[in-house]
Every structure is written in structure tokens, then in C-alpha cells.
Amino acid sequence: MATALDMFTIGIFNQHCRYLTEFWRCLGFVPNLNYYKCKFRKRLARDKLQDLHKCLKVILKGITEVHRMGGIHTNILGREDAMKPWIHFVIGDASGINEVFGHFNHHGKCLCLYRDCRCSFDEMGDAGAYCEYITLEELKSALETADKHGVDNDFVPLSDNVYDIHGMVPPEGLHTFGSGNYGTLLDTMHDVVGIEHKNTTDKETVNDLHLLIVEATKRQSELDMPQPMVRNGIMDGTQMEATEKCVNVLALVLVLKTKAGQLLFKRHCERNSLRLSKMLKTAILILSCEKWCHSNVHLGDVDRSGPAIRELKHQLLKHFPCGKYVRRSMVGKYQNFMQYLSFPST
């Protein structure tokens, strides 16, 4: 029987310590709630999700009781204090976090695609959109319009008094960048050269240039640079992991820096009314943005990064369009675009 493990660590540990498994402790286990369930028994998604939150309520019972009693009263250096625990943020993938929120797990055209805000599906394609977190009062009065199941969530007493759990769940880079925007870049570049099986000769030329770049990168001293994936070629993103897409985007940037790569892609970009120089610059900015998001940045720089993040989103939507010049549908990538705006605030 498969189980889900809930783990925690203390926020006073630095980043290096939080990466180590010995600094984490098990808080509880969530069993496989579908075990012994008959597939012919139809249950509402809200009821199945409520079973999960009943398990989480038991796991968090000790913390919530201490919180509701006013904390742990103690004496520190002759001063009476009350230590009250809270959950600072929750880490997980998109599907798991949506379950913690009680948010609908959907990827189509809906009222609120992203869990934190009330931006509509059409607004997610707007690079200049300003998001506002859903407050606890708004959530109680408008569950359906916020695409929430309305489950009994025990995170409420441990979270923000105004915004509830909204804003406590930062977007994780693996899906935002790796399987999200890097996949968009590679898919767009593939379809700019040719939809599906068109222009296979040019695609093979790009793969040959990619192999040359891969062999050249092996003869360098940068130890932090992972090796690109070469088993299926750079133009085939169907069998490529998220981490491999990141490295292959960097390899594609190097391909576009070569004369042969520029001549090949420039011809196809002009046919699709795209500018190769702008696409290349945008790809470099996305790689730089991921590096910046995963580095130690001064808080003041984070607060001032909002306009730059929005400009990057604008360039990404403009020079790597979703469904305008390419046939492949990428409307699901809007959620990843929206997460760019959440990085400065979390």
C-alpha cells in the first residue's frame, strides 16, 4: 500500500542545512485512500479530497492544539514569552499543492486556473497582469468562482489571518521552468522549423549541430554544468525530463550562436514573422531568471524585481507564442507564465 510522507524542518536552518535529509523529520503518513475502493463506486472529488484533509488534520493535531492554546509559555532570559508555531510555507508539486489548497486540479479553460489569485484564464495571457492573493473572507463567500472544493482545511489556524494559505506555497522551479517554459521554448523552435514531420532535413541538421555542441562542452572545466541529453535529439521533447530540458535550452542557445544555426533558423523565423535575435535574447533571459531564482538574493532586489519579471513574461509570450505561429496547443503553459509573478512575492 502506497503512502505519502509529510515531512517538516525548522526555518532557522540555513539553505545548506535544509538541503540535507538529516535536518528533516517525519510529521506523519497519509495512507493510500483508494485502497479497497471499488472503481464502480462514484464519489465526488470534494468527498475524496476531504478524506485527505481528515488525515492531515490528525497529523497536524498537535501543532494546532498548541497554537489554539496560545503557544508554549516559557521563560527566556528572565522574560515570560509564549512560543507559537506556525507553517511558514509548504513545498510540493502542482497537483499536491492544489490538494492542500482544495483547488480544482484542472488544466483547461476555467475561472481560476492558478490557486493563489482570482485571475481569469484570459488574464493569464496578459503580461502586465497584477495578481492579488485571495483573502480568507473572499474564499468563504465565493468558493465556486475561485474554483475551490470548499473542504474543511486544517491549515487555516496555522496560516496567515488575512490570506489564509495563499502566498504560503511558492512555485517550484522544476515545473515552472523545466517541464513548463523550457518545454515551450523547445516545442516552439521545433514547430517554427516544421510542424510534426515537415522539414526533417533541417531538423536533422539542428540535431547534428547539437551533437557538436555537446562534444565541445565536455572539454571544459565548469563542473556545475550538467551534460545535455543526446539520446533522441534536441528537437524531440517528448522523451525529455525537466532537468534535461534546461540543459538542452542552453545547448540550443549555443547552436543559435553558430553561423550554420543562425542561417537555418533565420530562414524559418522570417517565414513565421518571428525575429531570431529576440527569441535568442528571451531564451538567455529565461536561463538567467532561473539562475537568479535559485540563488541567494538580497531582499531589496527581490522587492524591486517585479517589473523585470513582468517584462520577461511579456517577451516570452511575444517571441514564443502559444498557438499563433505553431499548431501545437500550449494553453496549459499559461499557468507556468503566471507563476513568474509569484516568485518575487514568495
Please tell me about this protein's structure.
This protein folds into 2 domains: 4-158, no CATH class; 173-340, no CATH class. The chain contains 13 helices and 4 strands. By secondary structure, it is mainly alpha-helical. The strands form 2 sheets. Strands 1-2 form a two-stranded antiparallel sheet. It has helices at 15-18, 45-59, 61-68, 94-101, 136-141, 173-193, 200-217, 242-256, 259-271, 276-293, 299-303, 306-319, 334-340, and strands spanning 4-8, 25-30, 72-76, 79-83. The chain is elongated, with a radius of gyration of 23 Å. A hairpin with a 2-residue loop joins strand 3 (72-76) and strand 4.
The description of the largest β-sheet is: 2 strands, antiparallel
What global shape is seen? Answer: elongated
- Please tally the β strands and state the result: 4
**Number of helices, counting only DSSP H or I runs of 4 residues or more:** 13
| Strand percent estimate | 5-15%
Q: Give the fraction of residues assigned to helices.
A: 40-55%
Give the H and E element order. EHEHHEEHHHHHHHHHH
The low-confidence parts are: 324-332
* Rg computed from alpha carbons, rounded to a whole number of angstroms: 23 Å
